[in-house]
Design a protein that fits this description.
It is built from ten helices and no strands. Helix 6 (136-153) runs antiparallel to helix 7. By secondary structure, the protein is mainly α.
Length: 254
């Protein structure tokens, strides 16, 4: 039993490091790794895993955007706006789950993920690290739409926020990653508070270890993202999104 506990803790720390690296560098992808990882490593139920992932991913997101404050590659106001509007949209999207067939959800999911990956791979690159003047009506539409899709498809908003910021709102690539982390952190915190009835299912000890590993990893990875050029970041994002989409489709037997 002791060996099993040690292995579970070790695997969890490795998982936390991976989550932190991905979040810290590309500004998305934490939940995609956290939820299946927590289920596989700890044998948690889906509800317990998603609730635990909010703590891990949210904390790692905070650790990822803090170093970006010094380099001014984060737009806090835009990130909080995406979070607020995204929550409203997510509620609407959740209602659509009852109407839209699962097969249609999967096709939409695949189309969006692969489309985002191709667009980020081929799309224009903005190397600037400065903040941009956002067109707020467009921000409202894009953020709400992403929330609806997040609620409908059950995928993390970061996968949609980063390409939307870069390709639609023309936010510099590095700033988009940092801004996405603000949205992820605030959304995770709100979602965790709303899930208070499931807090008792979260295994505190292991989750704290996972979270600390993710925080340290994300904090250390953030400066790495600052040294990479925007094209490298966009291509890295495209590759990760593609692999994640394939993994999710395969796990759902598609």
């Amino acid at each position: 039993p002791e060996v099993a506990k040690f292995m579970m803790l070790f695997e969890g720390i490795i998982l936390g490091i991976l989550i932190g690296l991905v979040l810290g560098i590309i500004g998305a992808g934490g939940a995609i790794l956290a939820v299946p990882g927590l289920i596989a490593v700890m044998g948690l139920s889906t509800v317990a895993a998603t609730t635990s992932s909010l703590v891990i991913v949210g904390s790692a997101a905070v650790a990822g955007f803090i170093p970006r404050l010094k380099t001014k590659t984060v737009d806090i106001r835009l990130g909080l706006t995406f979070s607020a509007l995204g929550i409203l949209g997510t509620f609407a999207g959740t209602q659509l789950v009852k109407i839209v067939p699962e097969s249609a959800q999967l096709i939409l999911f695949a189309t969006l993920m692969f489309g985002a990956a191709i667009a980020m791979w081929r799309g224009p690159v903005n190397e600037s690290s400065s903040q941009v003047k956002s067109q707020w009506p467009l921000v409202f539409l894009v953020a709400t739409a992403i929330g609806v899709l997040t609620g409908l498809l059950g995928v993390g908003g970061g996968f949609l926020i980063v390409p939307a910021l870069v390709l639609i709102l023309k936010v510099p690539t590095k700033t988009a990653a940092g801004t996405s982390l603000v949205a992820i952190a605030s959304t995770s915190a709100i979602a965790f508070l709303m899930r208070f009835e499931y807090w008792s299912e979260v295994p505190a000890g292991p989750v704290v270890s996972f979270t600390l590993a993710a925080i340290v990893s994300s904090f250390l990875a953030a400066p790495i993202a600052g040294k990479l050029n925007a094209r490298t970041l966009q291509k890295g994002f495209a590759i990760f999104v593609t692999l994640a989409a394939i993994a999710i489709l395969a796990s759902r037997g598609f």
